[in-house]
Structure formats: C-alpha cells, structure tokens
Design goal:
Number of helices: 3
Oligomer: single chain
Radius of gyration: 20 Å
Helix content: over 70%
Shape: rod-shaped
Number of strands: 0
C-alpha cells in the first residue's frame, strides 16, 4: 500500500481495528472463565468470602479487560511500525 502512496496511519487502521476486536473477544472469554472459577471457589470454599466484597472481583475484571486491550494495542503498534519502516525492497 505504501508503494501506491498510502500513509502509515491509513495502513495501520484496519489492523488495529481487527486486533482490538479480537482482544475484546478474548478478554470476554477470559472474564467468563474467571467468573466460572470465582463461582466454583465461592461454592467449594465459602470461608474465603470472595463475593462478600464485590469491589475486589470487579477491579480484577476491569483490570483483566483493560490489560488485555492495552497489551494488544501496544504489540500491534510495534509490529506494524516494524514492517512499515522497512524499505520496499526488503518486504519482497
């Protein structure tokens, strides 16, 4: 795309959108698994009282979600920048 005059940001946008969507789906799957683990732990070990303070699991869920999105965004930007800075001869 650079050979026909596309800017770097124009080339990056579809990759970033796709990877953010995949990260969103992956984070939701991780949160579903985490909620299942928390539910089972609360059922088998009620003395832990995990769900008595709902702020702690909520903070864990929010941090897992945003950490997954952040890692995906940063890694996508680094990977895209690496390939966009290559000379066109090195790509082929």
């Amino acid at each position: 795309m650079q050979l026909v005059g596309a800017t770097k940001s124009f080339i990056r946008k579809p990759f970033i959108k796709t990877n953010i969507l995949m990260s969103f789906i992956g984070s939701l799957m991780a949160l579903l698994a985490l909620s299942g683990v928390i539910y089972e732990m609360n059922k088998r070990f009620p003395e832990l009282q995990i769900l008595n303070n709902p702020l702690e699991p909520a903070l864990i869920f929010v941090s897992v979600f945003f950490l997954g999105l952040g890692i995906t965004l940063i890694s996508t930007l680094f990977a895209m920048q690496r390939y966009l800075n290559l000379k066109s001869d090195a790509v082929y």
